[in-house]
Amino acid sequence: MDARYKSRDIERRSLDVDGLKRSFLEWLVYSVGKDARAATRRDWFHTVALAVRDRVVDRWMDTTRSYYQEDAKRVYYLSLEFLIGRLLTNSLSNLGIVDECRQALDRLGLSMEDVVDAEPDAALGNGGLGRLAACFLDSMASQGLPGYGYGIRYEFGLFEQRFENGWQVEYPEQWLQFGNPWEFARPEVLYPVQFYGRVEEFRDSVGDRAYRWVDADRVLAMAYDTPVVGYGGDTINTLRLWSARATRDFNFGHFNDGAYMKAVEQKILSENLSRVLYPNDATETGKELRLKQEYFFTSASLQDILRRYLQHHTTFENLPNKAAIQLNDTHPAIGIAELMRLLVDQHALRWDDAWEITRATFAYTNHTLLPEALEAWPVRMIERVLPRHMQIIYEINAKFLNRTKARADGDNARLSRLSLIDERGERRVRMGNLAFLGSHKVNGVSALHTELMKQTVFADFHEEFPDRINNKTNGITPRRWLKQANPALSELITTRIGEGWISDLSQIAALRDKADDVVFREEFRRAKRKNKKRLAAYIARQTGEEVLVDSIFDVQVKRMHEYKRQLLNVLHTIALYNEMRDNPTVSWVPVTKVFAGKAAPSYHMAKLIIKLINDVAKVVNHDPSVHDNLKVVLLPNYNVTAAEIIIPAADLSEQISTAGMEASGTGNMKLALNGALTIGTLDGANVEIREHVGPDNIFIFGMTAEEVNDLRASGGFNPREVIASNPSLKRALDMISTGAFSPDDRNRYHPIVQALTDGGDHFLVTADFADYCRAQEAAMHLYRDPEEWTRKAILNTANMGWFSSDRTVNEYAGEVWDVHPVHPNHDGEGFR
Ligand code: Z16
C-alpha cells in the first residue's frame, strides 16, 4: 500500500507548555485508559513518556528518510549490552523541553521528580562495556552521525541486587513488567536464525563445490526499535533490539496430540534465547545459551544490514563503502563467519571477494586483557550449534596460516599462537583472533591498554599486521553525566561560560581561569554540597545510615572484582578506623566511605568481599569511639540511576585497580568531570586523566604496569614479608582473620586472608597498601584546606573536556568507520 502525502500533512506536536499538558491528558485518558483521579505515578510516567515519544517520532522519520535518500554510509554498533538507564529526563533534555514539561506537570498538580522516579532502569548491560555503548549512541546522534545500535531485547536486565544479612542476593530485574513506552515493536521485521543441523555439499550451477546448512532448528528474531534522541533533537537514530519468537514450522510427519504439545513446548523454549542477560563482567562462562544469544543477534543484525544495503545496490563490492560494522568486544565476532556464509552460500560470491568485503566492513574493539575474559568456544560446541560456521572458521584459518611468515620460517610456536584454534587441551576457537583477522581495524580503549595489547595478547598479530591496532580512548556523554545528573554544577557552568560545553565539551576548559576566583570556588562548593545532601538523603533511605555532609565522600562505585581492589579500600578503611580509635583526641577529617557494585552471582570471592564491606560497616558505624568521624556504606543495586545520584556528590574517586588490569574505566571520567579528585593507580585511562588534569590535581600511587609485569616475571613476591613489615596492615588483616568483623563466624574471611597471604596476593593488594595509605593521607590533608581542594576540583572539571564520548566517536568516525554527519531535512517536504 502506498498512501500519497507529504510529511508536512502531519500535524507536528507542539513543544510548548499548553500543548504538552493537553497531550498528557489525551494520552492518559485514551491510551493509558485512566481517569486523572485514578492514575498512579506509573500511569503518569507512561503518559508523559508516550507524549514525549510523540515529539520524537516525526524527527526520527525525517532522520531515517535523510539517511536513505542520501544513501549515507551507516555505522552499525553491534553490542550484546546497552546499559541505558532511564530515558525520560534524557529525552526531554535533548529535546530542550525539560522546563516546559515541568510546568505542564505543575499545572496538573504533579511533581516532575515523582514522574521521573517511576521509570525503571533499562539495565541491558553489566557495566563499563554496556554503558560505553549507550554513551556512543548518544554521541553519534548528537554529532549527526548515521549510527545504529543492534543488540538483544532481554526480558530480564541485569539482576536486582539486595543485601540479606549482608550477603548479596539476586532478584530478576523485570523492567518490562508494565510495558516499555519508548519502544516500537516491529512484528513485520522478522528474520530466521538457525541452529544445529548439518552441512550438505553439492555442486552449484557451474559445477563448483557449494554448501548448504540443512535440518536446522529455526528461531525468529523480531525487531523492537527505540529512538535515540541526539542533543538538540535534530538527529534521532535507532537502537534496534531483537527478541526471539518461535517459528510456525511444524513437523507434520508425526502429527498427533502428543507430538503437537511437544512441538509447542519446543517453540516456547526457543523464545528463551532473549530471556536474560548473562551477569558476567569481564569473565566468560562458556554456556551454550550464551553462544546462541551471540549468534542470534549477530545473524539478525547482518541480515537486516544486508537488506538495507540491497535497497540501493545489486552487488556487494560497495558494502564497505556503505556499512561499517563495529564489534563491541568479541561477543558478535561470530558475525565474521556469518557474513562470509551469507555472501558465499546465499549470494554466491567467490570466497576471496567475500573475505575482502568482510574485512573492509568489520572493525573490532577489545575491552580486556584478562585471560579468563577472552572468549574461546569449544570447537565441539560450535560444530554442533553452528556447523557451517565451524567449516568457515577452519577455512579462514587454513588460508591465513598458509601465507604467514611463521610458516615460511618454520616457527611452529608462533604459528600455533596465531591460529584461530587453541589446540592446548580441549580444542577451542579463539574469538579474539577471529575478530582480529576479520577486521580492518582493531582498537583498545585507552593508550596504556592499546600498548599492552600490542605487547601481550595480540603481539604476534601486531607483528603480522602492524597498521591494524589503534587506540580509541573511551569517553562519556556530557549530556547524561554532567548536564542531567548534576543540574547544580551544570547550571553554574552555563551561567559562567555559556552552554556551548554541552555539545562541545572542550569548551569547558574556559573554567580553568575560574579556579582562582574565590567567588566561583564558593559557588562550586555550594553545588557540590547540594549534591552531597541529595546523596546523604539517598544513603539514609537505602541503608538507614546517617552520614556527615561535611565529611569527605570517598567513593568507589563499580563492579565487584578482585582486580578492581575494593579490598585495598577496605583495608585502608580498617586501618583508618584503628588510627581514629587509637587517637581519639586528634581532630580527624571525617570520612564517609561509599561503596556500591554488583558481584557476578557465581563469583564467590566478590560476594565475600561484599559481605566483608557490610560487616565492617556494621562495626565501624556503631562504634561510638570514632565519634562519627568514619562511616562506611555499601549502597545496594548500583545501576545507572544510582550512579547519577552518587557521582555528582563524590569528593574522592577511587580508581585503584592493579596496574595493567583495567582496560580503561569510564567511572573515573564521570567522577573527575563532576569535580571529584582521583586517587588511583597508573592504570587504564587514569594515565590520560593525569595528563589532562595535571599531576598536582590527582593522587597517584602504587606500582606501574611495567613494575607489576617485572615483579610477576621475576617470580612474584612474598606478601607475608610485606605484611610483617607494616604494622597497620598486619593489624587490619589480623582483625579480619580473627573475626573482629564476623564474631558470628570467625572463619568467614579465611578465603580472603588466604588469597592475600599464602595465595600469593595475585592483585598486589599488600604490595600497594603502604603507598595507597600515603596517598589517602595526602587527600585528607588537602581536604582541610577547602580553597585548595576546591581549586583542584575545578581544575579537574575544567580539564576533562577531552573525555567526552563525542571526541571518541568522532575519532572512530574519521579513523575507523569513514562515516560523516548527515543533516536531516525537517522541512516536511519528504515523501513517506
Ligand atoms: C566490561 O564492562 C569491560 C570489559 C570486558 O571485557 C567486559 C565487560 Cl562486560 C569493561 C572494562 O573492564 C573497562 O575497563 C572499560 O572501561 C569498559 O569495558 C569499556 O571499555
TrEMBL record:
Task: Report keywords, A-Z.
Answer: Carbohydrate metabolism, Glycosyltransferase, Pyridoxal phosphate, Transferase
Question: Which reaction does this chain catalyze?
Answer: [(1->4)-alpha-D-glucosyl](n) + phosphate = [(1->4)-alpha-D-glucosyl](n-1) + alpha-D-glucose 1-phosphate
Class of this enzyme: transferase
The protein's matches in InterPro entries, at most eight in alphabetical order, are given as: Glycg_phsphrylas, Glyco_trans_35, Pyridoxal_P_attach_site
Q: Does the keyword Transferase apply?
A: yes
Region forming the signal peptide = none
> What does this gene product do?
Phosphorylase is an important allosteric enzyme in carbohydrate metabolism. Enzymes from different sources differ in their regulatory mechanisms and in their natural substrates. However, all known phosphorylases share catalytic and structural properties.
User: What is this protein identified as?
Assistant: Alpha-1,4 glucan phosphorylase
> What organism is the protein native to?
Azospirillum endophyticum
